[in-house]
Design a protein that fits this description.
Layout lengths: L1 E8 L3 H12 L5 E4 L16 E2 L10 H20 L3 E2 L3 E5 L2 H16 L4 E5 H7 L7 E5 L3 E3 L1 H14 L3 E3 L4 E7 L2 E6 L2 E10 L5 H7 L7 E7 L2 E3 L10 E4 L11 E4 L5 E4 L3 E2 L13 H8 L2 H22 L1 H9 L10 E3 L3 E7 L10 E5 L2 E6 L4 H21 L1
Parallel strand pairs: 1-2, 1-12, 2-9, 5-15, 12-22
Antiparallel strand pairs: 3-8, 4-8, 5-7, 6-7, 10-11, 11-12, 13-18, 13-20, 14-17, 14-19, 15-16, 16-17, 21-22
Helix pairs in contact: 1-5, 1-10, 2-10, 8-9
The structure holds flavin-adenine dinucleotide.
């Protein structure tokens, strides 16, 4: 059986960055076990491609610190590696008095987090985005766009050059932990390691449980459906156009995103998915559904948020309602401007009381580190999360 110092489960941006940061500091041998045949096929390759600034997050939270540091590391990596990115900036637009009050709080938070942002009147907003209508807005200079799939694949190449092994097509099916380390069972045989790092995204809770760890949460999958703007409507969005997030549902709210590979996408909405990797509506997994239907936290969410759920469902089935949401930001958008685009699925970590875990969550046990919650902005922050984990591994080795 092959023996490694560290085995990383998951070849999304968090797992592959962790492997790279480990081998960069001389820790090894390191292996990445990824169940798909390629890296970055799930959340990392199916997102909005936005480089988040850190404007929204609670000062001092893991999200705030890792997002700001991760953004800087990401930009430096893309520059060094000649990967496409564009710090085009974004506007967050308030369309009501209530949203204006919330936007003021976000503006203050952004400044506290060291994000470069400025307040815009309705007229000033039009200089940035002539087709957007709003009462006022915040312009965020430190936001941009990237291709996270390309970033993860390049990080993978650099990790391999430094000695990491990447085994794709290796689904992890079990973990056995004892005093000597961890035995990791995969569909293609076993490997052993001193330490396992779980970066399994949509399956991170199950992998934690394989190691006997109760993460105190469960992943509930929410599908985000996107549309592409038809070429004749692309001029309506110059950069990134976001609504003011509802503090009760900060991850909701369709936005317009200029993509780094060209074109403009709008979305995503957030609909309960019937499978953790059910990217198309008829895809159903009885096991995945049973996992959340039998969970107290999920039942509480349904009780607390059924109205919002109906709203999201109505927008998903009625293109007219979806367009009405978009028209709050750009009144000129029409139904016929929307073309289909691929969807993504968020790994939403839900706590037993029905609240949604907000901050990144990393659980450490002897011989195990589990990244149990890495939602947006974890793509922006991926390189920094990898660095943070590599520091913890180095500390554990030194102890
Ligand atoms: C719709 C959507 C929009 C988003 N927009 C943005 C954005 O604009 N900007 C931003 O910063 N963030 C965004 N995010 C969040 C971001 O994409 C994720 O937080 C980030 O990609 C998480 O990376 P990850 O490596 O943890 O997960 P993933 O990319 O999902 O990787 C996990 C990997 O683990 C593998 N795996 C799982 N189980 C096993 C197993 N048993 N054995 C082996 N391998 C396994 C999977 O195959 C997968 O490759 C968005 C997310 C979604 C879904």
């Amino acid at each position: 059986m092959d023996r490694f110092e560290v085995a990383v489960i998951g070849g999304g941006i968090v797992g592959i960055s962790t492997a790279w940061q480990l081998v960069r500091r001389g820790i090894g041998p390191v292996v990445v076990l990824e169940k798909e045949d390629e890296l970055a096929t799930h959340q990392t390759g199916r997102n909005s491609g936005v480089i988040h600034s850190g404007v929204y997050y609670k000062p001092g939270s893991l999200k705030a610190t890792n997002c700001v540091a991760g953004r800087k590391a990401l930009i430096a990596f893309c520059e060094e590696e000649d990967l496409p990115f564009d710090m085009c900036g974004k506007v967050i637009v308030a369309t009501s008095e209530e949203e204006e009050a919330q936007l003021k709080r976000i503006f203050e938070r952004g400044k506290t987090n060291g994000v470069r942002c400025s307040w815009l009147s309705a007229e000033e907003l039009r200089e940035y985005e002539p087709h957007v209508r709003g009462r006022c807005a915040v312009h965020v200079e430190d936001a941009g766009i990237a291709d996270y799939g390309a970033v993860a694949r390049r990080v993978g190449e650099r990790a391999i050059e430094l000695g990491a092994e990447v085994r794709t097509g290796h689904a992890v099916t079990g973990l056995r932990v004892d005093a000597a380390g961890v035995t990791i069972e995969t569909q293609k045989g076993e490997v052993s390691a001193d330490l396992v790092v779980n970066c399994g995204g949509l399956h991170s809770d199950r992998i934690a449980r394989m190691g006997g760890v109760r993460p105190g949460l469960r992943i509930v999958p929410f599908r985000g459906h996107y549309h592409k703007l038809a070429p004749e409507a692309e001029h309506l969005c110059k950069t990134l156009i976001y609504p003011v997030p509802n503090p009760a549902y900060p991850f909701l709210g369709v936005h317009f995103t200029r993509m780094v590979r060209g074109g403009v996408e709008c979305g995503p909405n957030a609909l309960l998915a019937f499978a953790r990797e059910g990217y198309r509506i008829p895809q159903v997994s009885i096991g995945d559904m049973a996992d959340y239907l039998g969970y107290s936290g999920f039942r509480q969410i349904m009780k607390d948020h059924w109205k919002q759920g109906i709203h999201e469902f109505a927008c998903a089935v009625s293109r007219r309602r979806y367009v009405r949401e978009l028209q709050k930001l750009i009144p000129e958008v029409r139904k016929e401007h929307l073309l289909p685009a691929p969807s993504g699925i968020r790994a939403q970590a839900v706590l037993p009381d029905g609240s949604m875990a907000d901050d990144f969550l990393i659980i450490e046990r002897p011989h195990q580190i589990h990244v149990c919650n890495a939602p947006s902005p974890a793509a922006t922050a991926g390189l920094q999360i990898g660095l943070t984990i590599s520091e913890r591994v180095a500390k554990a080795k030194a102890a």
